[in-house]
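Tokens for Formate dehydrogenase subunit alpha. Go.
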Amino acid sequence: LLDPRPIERRTLTTCGFCGVGCSLEVAARDNGIATVRPVDDGGVNRGHACVKGRFSHGFVTSPERLTAPLVRRGGSLEPASWEETIGFVAGRLAEHRGTEPDSFALISSARATNEENYLAQKFARAVMGTNNVDNCARVCHAPSAAGLAATFGLGGGTNPFDDLDRCDTVLLVGANPTHAHPVVGSRLFQRVVDGARLVVVDPRRTLLARHADVHLRPRPGTNVALFHGLAHVLVRDGLADTGFLETHTTGFDDLQELLRDYPPERASAITGVPARDLESAARLYGNSRAPMIFYGLGVTEHRHGTDGVRALANLALLGGAVGPGSGGGINPLRGQNNVQGACDMGAMPDALPGYQKVLDDGARARFSEAWGTGISPRPGLRIPQMFDAARSGTLKALWAIGEDVLATGADSSSVEAALEACPLVICNDLFLSATARMADVVFPVAAWLEKDGTFVNFDRRFQRVRPAVRPPAGVRTDFEVLHAVAAAMGADLGCPTPEAALAECAELAPLFAGISHQRLDQAGALHWPCTSAESPGTPRLYRERFATPDGLAHLAVRPYLPPGEETDGDFPFLLITGRRGEHYNTGSMTRRTGNLALLPQETLDIDAADAASFGLRNGDPVQLTSRHGRAVLPARITDDVEPGQLFAGFHFPGAGVNNLTSAVVDEATGCPEYKLTAVRIRPAPAG
Ligand code: SF4
């Protein structure tokens, strides 16, 4: 039955699930959400939204929302007043401030707005005196930020999403946007229907792979060899624009030397991709006028994820996808709503807001002067290093803002050991997450539908986030919590409102100098770099020169190196983990909505022949054992996966998928190798 009560308020905001950044209109009555509709002229989504953004909002009124702070007493978490909890946290953190600042670490996240991320890193640096601040990009796209910045000068994608309509060929690598970025997936599919050519690189037969002109299925962990094989064909067949490469890049001679070692036959032997398919893909890509590369975690979440990003960036340069005179681009599909913004705002151990290096004396001096306090010259710990430090006893206090590190971290038993060893764990969350259950203090905080601020989506677009409803009584925003703890420690974080926080950031970070709430309210969106109040922003990067000091793109010359895990007689299957369309990340929000009926549990995707060899039928429980842990999942027999490979989503932490994944990380950035784990399987007893 239709609710007869009138709609009282309609609020324009930005979706808080994936990194596409769809514009949504939220209608509310009696401080409850009535409907969520995609905005017709929304910058990215143009009237589209997915089953998450449009329908998955019931979590906001879940009876499981935390509405009072919790403090551990005598082994159990007990409700406490805000005043008491803030005082307790401030007192404990004050013990570390000054004497041993690096014994404190803060993990921020995409759950927080830009303004909250700005305040979080300011709290760590200006109040606690440490650069031990990181964010959830560490476990997904840190290799993109590092790899793209090393090649081109900036760590973001190169194009606005609308450029998809101008491209003639899409190279989609290690991404399943139909599920992980549904509006991108739909528009990409539409573009293919309209005539664009499509090359998909993915071990799995995804929906888009089924409609691709060429589908390459490399063995997980062999991307770099595949990209070098494609590059070899481009150079060998004269499909690389040598004039452009000589004028706008460095390293081409060395790269050609390296590529001699990757003829299609050798690349095929390493990757398992037939040489003729590799040649077809290279020719299709190399003959396009405006090729566009989109890629996802299948590139980054590897032991050599940064090498993978850089080898893909080589392909972009060789194929004329990026740079002066190009018609295409290279764009990482950021998985979370504001993971780009968390990095942009300096929630990183080696970078201040706007990617200004902690090691840069001039940058530190500017922030020191503005904040009235010294900035440590030592880069801080990355998330995996924070856990190492906790286990070794040198990290004494850890504050996780919106990131359920126990559910999301690889090799979860090692994360659990770190949380157990850390004397003070503080957690901001909507619900009693796995991390919150182990914390000493839990702050109940607001959801994205209750917040004021901005997010940055996957194509570097700042957009406004506005409160559609008020948070439940007893709940505060992360912004308010950070201010309150700082104040109780006798510190003033300044910037009393989100608008003031972004203004302060804009003053200190030239990349964002022209961005403000006021301009966003008028313009709707602005792409960084936006270096003055007159600048319209920069939807397309590198039209005249690259952003490196010499203005040239730096081709990477790195050989293929084997992944961290290999199969053997004991662990003969390769498990890949990833996303499914119905849920979002740990599922803490979407599992508390009607989406649970669409996908009520996690499954193990397995090839029919493999299932038959174990006598498994659909739904039968399967025990997985890796070198790190165990999990049990029901079988789902499908031809999506190759024989010898398995796939599971990570939206049901209780299923224990991250018990299996390994602690191996990308050597350049510390991003875990979620995309391949050697496992063995056997039928498990029912129930
Ligand atoms: Fe758009 Fe992603 Fe939100 Fe779906 S989850 S509505 S694709 S931003």
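The pocket of iron/sulfur cluster is lined by residues 15, 17-18, 20-22, 45, 49-50, 52-53, 181-183 (CB under 6 Å).
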